[in-house]
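User: Reviewer 2 asked us to show a designed sequence for the structure in our supplementary figure. I'm pasting the structure tokens here. Could you produce the per-position amino acids so we can include them in the response letter?
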């Protein structure tokens, strides 16, 4: 085992896959000589050259289209969005091309494309740099979406995404790059369609993902001292949602709390509620509680920014209400 930062875990995954497969390459703004906005691609251009770690102009729609075209020819591009919010400029390419070409070509084309980069609410990055795009992309057919939350799952998920023959969006949180944890020295892969059981429990099920996993665990550590025993699932796979793992947990706890940084309206939590209510309503002993970000543009003001997203105390209060009132 070795302890590394999350950004280094991502860089290791890219380096290992580029070394193993010459069809893998990286493109995006400042990914080459600068090493990426958060140093995920640092020094890779020295090892692989400027054509495999390709600096692009500030034209998201163009280089996304180029990446999709190259994936059709057999290459395996990794597109870094300097900030995931900017990929809204490439929404047409991602939805109408990346998501649909394998289907509309009758299976003649594979689209082995990875789209990754920083997103989420940072520290005073402003509304345009604080987007949570999972809610935008979840309804597009043909895409897979995963969200990393630790150095361990960041590396394992990215390696699996690079090897997949379908377009995969990997969401990284801007405030998790400096998270440090142990990962194995040996190579490992993680599935792109499975949730992670973070903590076993019996009182209720808490579903979360990305940075909110750490808010949840901060709250859970306090709740355990108060006599509560929650079960925690890190969703990881945002599309498809691992409903089987959710149901397995609900059969034990019969109560559900969803904690997300996504917008409440049309977010990932909304989709989970819909699936549970449609097919597994009888498992619930209490109404589902959902803690999500406020449906407003993220303020630049630091104090206002904090109150737009979920905090650990809200999680504690919701658990106590859900367990004690049911």
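Assistant: Here is a per-position design you can include in the supplement:
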């Amino acid at each position: 085992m070795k302890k590394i930062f999350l950004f280094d875990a991502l860089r290791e995954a890219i380096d290992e896959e580029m070394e193993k497969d010459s069809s893998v390459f990286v493109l995006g703004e400042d990914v080459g000589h600068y090493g990426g906005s958060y140093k995920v691609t640092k020094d890779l251009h020295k090892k692989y050259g400027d054509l495999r770690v390709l600096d692009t102009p500030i034209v998201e729609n163009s280089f996304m289209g180029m990446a999709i075209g190259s994936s059709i020819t057999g290459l395996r591009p990794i597109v870094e969005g300097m900030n995931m919010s900017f990929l809204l400029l490439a929404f047409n390419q991602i939805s109408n091309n990346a998501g649909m070409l394998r289907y509309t070509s009758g299976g003649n084309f594979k689209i082995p494309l990875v789209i990754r980069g920083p997103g989420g609410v940072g520290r005073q990055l402003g509304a345009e740099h604080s987007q949570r795009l999972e809610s935008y992309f979840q309804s597009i057919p043909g895409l897979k979406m995963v969200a990393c939350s630790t150095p361990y799952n960041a590396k394992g998920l990215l390696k699996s995404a690079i090897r997949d023959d379908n377009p995969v969006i990997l969401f990284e949180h801007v405030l998790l790059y400096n998270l440090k944890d142990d990962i194995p020295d040996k190579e490992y892969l993680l599935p792109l369609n499975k949730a992670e059981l973070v903590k076993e429990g019996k009182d209720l099920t808490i579903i979360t993902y990305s940075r909110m996993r750490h808010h949840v665990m901060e709250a859970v550590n306090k709740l355990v001292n108060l006599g509560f025993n929650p079960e925690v699932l890190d969703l990881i796979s945002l599309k498809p949602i691992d409903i089987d793992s959710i149901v397995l947990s609900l059969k034990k706890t019969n109560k559900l709390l969803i904690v997300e940084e996504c917008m409440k309206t049309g977010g990932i939590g909304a989709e989970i509620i819909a699936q549970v209510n449609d097919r597994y309503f009888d498992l619930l002993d209490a109404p589902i509680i959902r803690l999500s970000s406020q449906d407003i543009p993220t303020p630049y003001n630091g104090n206002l920014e904090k109150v737009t997203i979920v905090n650990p105390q809200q999680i504690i209060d919701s658990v106590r209400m859900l367990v004690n009132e049911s």
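For the response letter, you might also mention the following. The chain is about 35% helix and 20% strand. The radius of gyration is 20 Å.
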